[in-house]
């Protein structure tokens, strides 16, 4: 399965917000190869 990771996923993880545990499980699944992740590397400035 393919999943798209947006900035909020990383913020949840690194700042240990409410969804930290769920994001941690998601990242583990990606590391184990059960999921394939995509991220957007572009930065938008105004």
How many strand units? 2
Q: SSE order in H/E notation?
A: EHHE
Oligomer: single chain
Give the strand order of the largest sheet, numbering strands 1, 2, ... along the chain.
Answer: 1-2
Mean pLDDT: 92
Coarse structural class: alpha+beta
The number of domains is: 1
Low-confidence segments, ≥5 residues, pLDDT <50? Answer: none
Q: What does the main sheet amount to?
A: 2 strands, parallel
Q: What would you report as the Rg, rounded to the nearest angstrom?
A: 12 Å
First and last CA, distance: 34 Å
Task: Characterize the overall form.
Answer: flat
Strand proportion, as a percent range, falls in: 15-25%
| Portion in helices | 40-55%
Give the number of helices: 2
Q: Which key phrases capture this entry?
A:
46 residues, alpha+beta, two-stranded parallel ribbon
Describe this structure in words.
With 46 residues, the chain is an alpha+beta fold. It has one domain (2-38). Helix content is 43%, strand content 17%. It is built from two helices and two strands. The chain has helices at residues 7-14, 20-31, and strands at 2-5, 36-39. A two-stranded parallel ribbon has the order 1-2.
Helix-strand layout with pairing:
Layout: E1 2-5, H1 7-14, H2 20-31, E2 36-39
Parallel strand pairs: 1-2
At a glance:
With 46 residues, this protein is α+β, with helices and mostly antiparallel strands. The longest helix has 12 residues, at 20-31. It is 43% helix and 17% strand.
